[in-house]
């Protein structure tokens, strides 16, 4: 285990960014999102929740898949894929790290998504334990330990220092490069802090949500009348899905650029949108209630059904914070809780 | 009696007498702040709430609600009444089916501002009018209401009800200072073009194209928005380049110009805290400066100057570079 003074972190960022593009929480116009490090950027590693999750690093909101040039009846296909160079994502919280696993189970199975895979393989992930979890966090419900995220390297911000622990070979290699900035230390302070974190987590309001109904009563839940009330204020915007680290749906669209090149790109889609999965036959979910239900059934029932019981919510609480009308997955889970209120 | 009880009694009274079939109001959530809009009926008034965390403007829900059978009672804060009138004047809601009760509002609070003070575990937030009492992380603190106001309430346009069949007001509402409303817009006007471009680029580049601003906007009631219409040529689910989100916001601002009542919902709901209301407020200021003062939604009969020709209208060239 190593440590570095928080006041020296700039040196660390600079050192890493000499060898790798470095993505980490950056504050811009009042909000913190993952962005590329530059000396003029304001890094905010202590921000618990970036507005958008770090999933953009592997699954960007929009991404060029292939380009075409059309000349008469000749079509030239331009492969826009490039060799991904190694890069570092730093500051990843335990929930967001777990979300990478949720995405892997979608993109890294047959048919393999090479766009995602290339970025995933190129990344060195540095996680950051949550010394200050807050009300909206409920990662514990999904078995996530915010005091001990894995990743290639794990960091802990305690007092005036950042503690640094390499977990993998990739992590060791990065550590070697920047070791000169660190001092060596034992893990006593970290272990104490981890204990404190777990206590803090246990005192949060939503860490004891009961998910058993979603395992046992899938059809009852699907057909429940509660969805009507639960969704009635929903605007059908995409805020909850776009801030979510595990939402993985995308659409494929085309755009003709000024020079005539056609870009076929993919962009995030939202099951809350009225044209989601629209086909020639129409849209399978014609009401907002059905779309709303889809989002939570996917997270809590369908996905676990296909993935050995792993839920596709990691309890990051972003949708809890972002919904304009304060609808969210916590309210849904509580509504179906056995002792739950009648909606 | 506290306002919350008076409001609940009003809802009960109307439902019991059969004068209305449904009530559109707010429902208490799981925490101190997460109230949501909801429809209540005679046999289900569970969770009914009216307090300082009822920022959502209910007017737009009436577009669908007033299409349904029966009468509906709606509670509107002063600013919401302007959206209501605007929707009536655009024939988007059926006034005949609706009873409007105007509610006292001292300015709604933004839970994000409370959390931004550094609290992790908030147990209780109490409204003491001028001060807000927060119990959190084992301590109790008092913060001035102004400091915790939702962005939509920071420069409230008016505490007057543009429309109300009845009102419930317990404490006097202070009329906001008219001059402060356009102060930030004036500052933006004073910037050089490059500075202003940079300001907006910085703000708009945060946009995640979640459409919350559009979907919440009471002036955005197209059944099929151009941005969702695959045949429009500009449909887009995500910003495909750095210019696209500007296009989205500029088109939206033009489309609501003269119709935007300045309810501030767009800025309130933006997960990236983009001050969208400033774009619309710039248009309002320009309309005021060029055509004389106009407030959308103040009445249902007055035409907005952008769709009303008079001989005295200023010439476009007079406005360029003004
Ligand atoms: S649940 Fe909330 S954030 Fe999600 S689509 Fe509905 S209104 Fe938007
Ligand atoms: S559903 Fe909500 S809480 Fe769960 S991972 Fe997505 S944003 Fe986070
Ligand atoms: S949900 Fe858990 S892992 Fe995520 S930020 Fe909160 S405490 Fe950390
Ligand atoms: S609410 Fe904010 S982030 Fe969402 S589309 Fe509007 S400006 Fe963009």
Number of helices of chain B: 13
Per DSSP E runs of 2 or more residues, the count of β-strands of chain B stands at 9
Unreliable segments of chain B (pLDDT under 50, ≥5 consecutive)?
A: none
Bound small-molecule species:
iron/sulfur cluster
Q: Quick one: overall form of chain A?
A: globular
Number of discrete domains of chain A: 2
Question: How many strands, which pairing sense, and closed or not: the largest β-sheet of chain B?
Answer: 6 strands, mixed
Q: Mean pLDDT score of chain A, rounded?
A: 94
Estimated radius of gyration of chain A: 22 Å
Name the chain pair whose interface involves the most residues.
A-B, 54 and 45 residues
Number of strands of chain A: 13
Instruction: Compute the average pLDDT of chain B.
Output: 93
- Beta percentage of chain B is 5-15%
The separation of the N and C termini of chain B measures 52 Å
Helix percentage range of chain A: 25-40%
Q: How much is the radius of gyration of chain B in Å?
A: 21 Å
- Most strands sheet of chain A: 9 strands, mixed
Q: What are the secondary-structure elements of chain B, in order, as H or E?
A: HEEEHEHEHEEEHHEHHHHHHH
Number of helices of chain A: 12
Structural account:
The complex is a heterodimer of chains A (343) and B (322). By secondary structure, chain A is α+β, with helices and mostly antiparallel strands. Chain A folds into 2 domains: 2-59 and 82-202, no CATH class; 212-335, no CATH class. Helices cover 33% and strands 22% of the residues of chain A. Chain A is built from 12 helices and 13 strands. Chain A has helices spanning 9-19, 94-107, 114-122, 169-178, 188-202, 212-216, 218-223, 226-231, 239-243, 288-306, 318-322, 329-336; strands at residues 2-5, 22-28, 31-36, 42-43, 62-71, 74-79, 87-92, 123-128, 153-158, 161-166, 183-184, 250-256, 262-268. In chain A, the strands form 2 sheets. In chain A, strands 1, 2, 3, 4, 7, 8, 9, 10 and 11 form a 9-stranded mixed sheet that branches. Chain A has a 4-stranded antiparallel sheet with strand order 6-5-13-12, with no helix packed on it. The longest helix of chain A is centred in the C-terminal third of the chain and has 19 residues, at 288-306. Chain A is globular. The model of chain A has no long low-confidence stretch (mean pLDDT 94). Chain B is α/β, with parallel strands linked by helices and 322 residues long. Chain B contains 13 helices and 9 strands. Chain B has helices at residues 3-17, 61-65, 78-89, 111-115, 145-148, 151-154, 183-190, 193-204, 212-216, 244-256, 265-269, 277-291, 316-319; strands spanning 22-27, 36-40, 48-49, 72-76, 98-103, 122-128, 131-136, 139-144, 166-168. In chain B, strands 1, 2, 3, 4, 5 and 9 form a 6-stranded mixed sheet that branches. In chain B, strands 6-7-8 form a 3-stranded antiparallel sheet. The longest helix of chain B has 15 residues, at 3-17. Chain B is globular. The termini of chain B are far apart. The mean pLDDT of chain B is 93. Chains A and B meet through α9, β12, β13, α11 and α12 of A and β2, α9 and α11 of B. The complex binds iron/sulfur cluster (4 copies). One iron/sulfur cluster binds at residues 48-49, 93-95, 130, 133, 137, 139, 144, 146, 315-317 of chain A. One iron/sulfur cluster binds at residues 243-246, 299, 313-319, 329 of chain A.
């Amino acid at each position: 285990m190593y440590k570095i003074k928080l006041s020296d972190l700039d040196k660390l960022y600079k050192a890493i960014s000499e060898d790798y593009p470095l993505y980490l929480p950056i504050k811009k116009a009042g909000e913190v999102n993952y962005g590329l490090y530059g000396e003029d950027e304001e890094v905010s590693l202590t921000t618990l929740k970036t507005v958008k999750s770090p999933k953009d690093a592997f699954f960007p909101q929009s991404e060029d898949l292939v380009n075409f040039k059309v000349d008469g009846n000749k079509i030239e296909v331009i492969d826009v894929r490039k060799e991904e160079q190694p890069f570092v994502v730093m500051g990843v919280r335990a929930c967001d790290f777990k979300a990478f696993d949720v995405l892997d189970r979608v993109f890294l199975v047959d048919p393999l998504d090479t766009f995602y895979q290339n970025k995933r393989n190129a990344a060195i992930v540095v996680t950051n334990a949550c010394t200050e979890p807050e009300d909206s966090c409920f990662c514990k419900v999904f078995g996530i330990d915010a005091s001990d995220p894995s990743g290639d390297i794990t960091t802990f911000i305690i007092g005036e220092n950042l503690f640094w622990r390499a977990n993998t070979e990739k992590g060791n290699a990065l550590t070697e490069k920047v070791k000169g900035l660190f001092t060596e230390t034992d893990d006593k302070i970290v272990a104490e802090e981890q204990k404190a974190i777990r206590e803090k987590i246990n005192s949060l309001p939503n860490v004891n949500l009961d998910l058993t109904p979603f395992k046992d009563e899938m059809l009852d839940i699907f057909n429940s009348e509660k969805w009507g009330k639960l969704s009635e204020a929903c605007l059908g915007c995409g805020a909850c899905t776009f801030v979510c680290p595990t939402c993985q749906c995308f659409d494929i669209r085309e755009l003709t650029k000024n020079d005539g090149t056609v870009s076929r790109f993919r962009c995030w889609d939202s099951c809350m949108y009225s044209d989601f999965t629209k086909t020639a036959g129409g849209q399978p979910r014609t009401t907002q209630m059905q779309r709303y239900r889809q989002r939570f059934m996917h997270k809590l029932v369908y996905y676990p059904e296909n993935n050995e019981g792993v839920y596709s919510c990691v309890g990051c609480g972003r949708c809890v914070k972002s919904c304009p009308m304060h609808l969210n997955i916590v309210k849904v889970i509580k509504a179906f809780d056995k002792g739950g209120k009648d909606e | 009696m506290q306002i919350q009880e008076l409001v609940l009694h009003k809802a009960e009274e109307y439902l019991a007498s059969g004068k209305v079939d449904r009530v559109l109001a707010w429902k208490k959530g799981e925490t101190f702040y997460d109230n949501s809009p909801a429809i209540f009926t005679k046999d289900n008034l569970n969770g009914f709430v009216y307090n300082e965390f009822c920022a959502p403007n209910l007017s737009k829900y009436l577009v669908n609600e007033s299409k349904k059978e029966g009468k509906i009672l709606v509670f509107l804060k002063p600013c919401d009444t302007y959206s209501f009138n605007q929707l009536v004047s655009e024939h988007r809601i059926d006034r005949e089916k609706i009873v409007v009760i105007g509610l006292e509002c001292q300015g709604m609070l933004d839970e994000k501002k409370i959390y931004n003070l550094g609290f992790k575990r908030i147990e209780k937030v109490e409204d003491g009018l001028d001060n807000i009492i927060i119990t959190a992380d084992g301590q109790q603190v008092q913060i001035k209401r102004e400091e915790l106001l939702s962005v939509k309430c920071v420069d409230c346009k008016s505490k007057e009800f543009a429309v109300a069949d009845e009102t419930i007001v317990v404490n006097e509402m202070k009329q906001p200072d008219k001059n402060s409303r356009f102060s930030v817009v004036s500052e933006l006007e004073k910037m050089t073009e490059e500075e202003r471009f940079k300001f907006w680029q910085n703000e708009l580049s945060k946009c995640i194209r979640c459409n919350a601003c559009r979907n919440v906007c009471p002036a955005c009631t197209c059944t099929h928005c151009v941005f969702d219409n695959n045949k429009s040529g500009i449909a887009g689910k995500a910003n495909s380049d750095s210019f696209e989100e500007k296009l989205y916001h500029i088109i939206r601002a033009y489309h609501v110009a003269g119709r935007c009542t300045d309810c501030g919902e767009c800025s309130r709901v933006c997960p990236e805290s983009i001050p969208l209301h400033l774009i619309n407020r710039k248009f309002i200021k320009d309309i005021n400066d060029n055509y004389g003062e106009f407030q959308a939604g103040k009445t249902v009969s007055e035409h907005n100057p952008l769709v009303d020709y008079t001989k005295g209208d200023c010439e476009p060239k007079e406005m360029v570079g003004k």
